[in-house]
Amino acid sequence: MNYEMKPESDAFSQNNWKILLGLLLCFSFAVSFYGICLNYFYDIDEPKYARAVYEMIANGNILSPMFDGMPRMEKPPLTYWVMYPFAWLASLGGFGANTLFILRIPTVICSVLIVLGTALTGRRLFGATTGLLAAVMLQSSVLFKFMSVMMKVDVVFACCVTWATYCYLLRYLGDKRKVVSIGGAVVTALGVLAKGPFAFLPLAGYVLAVGIRDNVRKRHDAGQPASFLSSMNVGGLIKSKWNDRNILMLWFLAGCVPFGLWLYGAWLGSGFDYSQGLVGQFFHNTSTTSSKLLDKLGHLDPYLDTLTVIFFPWGGYVFGAAYGLWKSIKEKYDERYVFMISVFLVYLLVFTLLFKLKSNRYMLPILPILSILVCDWLVNAKRDKTYKTFFEMGFIWLCSMGAMLAYRSFKAMKVSVNLADGVPVAQYMDTMIPFFLVLGCFFAVLLVVSIKQTERPAFHILGGAIAIVAVLPFYYGTLPSYVSLEDNKPMPVMGQALTDGLAEIADGNTLILHRPFFIKTFPDVVYYLKKLDKGQGCMYSLGSSAHPVELLQALATPKNAAALFEKEHSDAENYPAYKYFKETEFTGGVLLLSSHDYITFRREFESLPPMIKKMIVIDEMTMLSVKWTPEKVYVVRFIQKQ
């Protein structure tokens, strides 16, 4: 890329680096912190993490994550460990109303660390100004902001990947200090403990970049010109003999050894082999009906959508950055771009070719790289006619995307809260209208800071970032709210409303029965069971696949819950839930049925003797599920007739 960097601009940023970095971190913390106080869950994964760490506190076992007394094998433990100290703080207050606020603090901290890592990486590559502005772009992007307040592995994993990439970059550029080597080992280990072997992807990008550099040197030694494309010789990449094989082995073992020790410790502490669950989850996510490479590459569109739309409001400039990169690697070799492109491509291609689920959040770990590359183009590229064309095209693109999304939300009367599902808002348009008005003002501000601002990209970036952040209070004002069964909008939220309703009818220790798929669909219900435990410790529900008649028998005689659980689990003694069912003296029970399950059970209800049928009470509740769709739940219980 042809540079036109302003020396005085970067000198100012460099001379005032500590002050500007402090302001950046304050900005990042304030923006990430906004939305953390939501008293319900953003998506279907949040309650799983919240409940798992709650059970860790209750059972004192930090090596074996559990969900409703069953092994939660889908993810390694780092996210739970990061949340554990904050869950302990919440336990001092009896896991009260502020628990979700406290449990989200770790992801806010991780998001601020990602912003810091982005600033340092950008500074090392392209100067202090680029690093600071790239971090501002990242913090103000929609995907990053939404994810920064969610209790999920993605933000923790992205934090590890960002800092691992920074350590690999320093080593790649010649920094062989021990602190870099040890730092790379530590963050690699943490990354693997966060999301398994996928943490090795930046390391694979590093290996690819080193191999390309080795090929370039060989071509130069042979007196041949070299560029990025001409150096992509597969044979040369495989045969390259790097001088830092030892550091590669150190980083690889640093990732594998702690992960293996955790698996062994989890097996000793619980009796469950968590590796089976992790491997099963991997194949579940990567299995596909097509093995053709072209078919898989043809499904890049969700990720391209993420790069251009979910990276709002900066996605429109991805086209200009891509053109600048293509021109740069075509004309000459620049090891900085080679490293960034190698890490980016490895991550994108592996997730595209392997994963059948195309999710926006999978792009979160490479958003820092994307922010740096886009910011580098905006700030440092030569101000020629091509630059102006792509700059204007990017602005038109993001305005078009914003207008389209706003129109679609307004027409459908829905607004997204988790990048996937929409909440119906027709019932409270009084909060939506201010949001749309402010969103319109955002585009007006962006228009002002974009017109003829190709010579002042910093003003454009800062103006756009502040404008989009100013929209947040109005956006969060449109989201659902829940105070009680009577005070909510647009309808009661599932987990809290259902357990509040059960609390009104429960008498003593109540056995909660359901089908296993019920909790997979409504996991927030399990988290809020703590409202029913009456301070007596962790409460579990019984998810059974038994015949409907057996479930009705357990509903009528809750003391048989342990026997029903043991019938379906040969190793029942290993489960915390079994101990609870065995030792608790239940005074009653309720059966929770989804609309689908109710169809099956209704036939059994109708076939019961009239005397028993009269003792069954079925309450119907319509609530907003954790996926923000209206769902009906049927609460079935026995009432003894006097």
How would you describe this protein?
There is one protein chain. The protein is an alpha+beta fold and 642 residues long. Helix 16 (318-331) packs across helix 18 (367-380) and helix 26 (561-568) packs antiparallel against helix 27. The protein has helices spanning 7-15, 17-33, 46-59, 78-92, 99-126, 128-139, 142-147, 153-172, 178-195, 201-221, 234-239, 245-270, 274-286, 293-297, 301-310, 318-331, 335-354, 367-380, 385-412, 429-450, 457-476, 494-505, 516-521, 524-527, 548-556, 561-568, 576-583, 595-607, 610-613; strands at 66-67, 70-71, 414-416, 422-424, 481-482, 488-489, 510-514, 542-543, 588-594, 616-624, 630-638. A hairpin with a 5-residue loop joins strand 10 and strand 11 (630-638).
Mean pLDDT: 84
Residues in helices, as a percent range = 55-70%
Classify the secondary structure makeup into a structural class.
alpha+beta
- Which word captures the global form? globular
Task: Count the DSSP helices.
Answer: 29
- Enumerate the spans where pLDDT stays under 50 for 5 or more consecutive residues: 289-294, 296-303
Strand neighbour order, sheet with most strands: 8-7-9-11-10
Q: Note the gap between the termini.
A: 85 Å
The major β-sheet equals:
5 strands, mixed
Radius of gyration: 27 Å
The strand count comes to 11
Features:
642 residues; 29 helices; alpha+beta; single chain; two-stranded antiparallel ribbon; five-stranded mixed β-sheet; 63% helix
Outline of the structure:
The chain has 642 residues and is an alpha+beta fold. 63% of the residues lie in helices and 7% in strands. The strands form 4 sheets. Strands 8-7-9-11-10 form a 5-stranded mixed sheet, with helices on both faces.
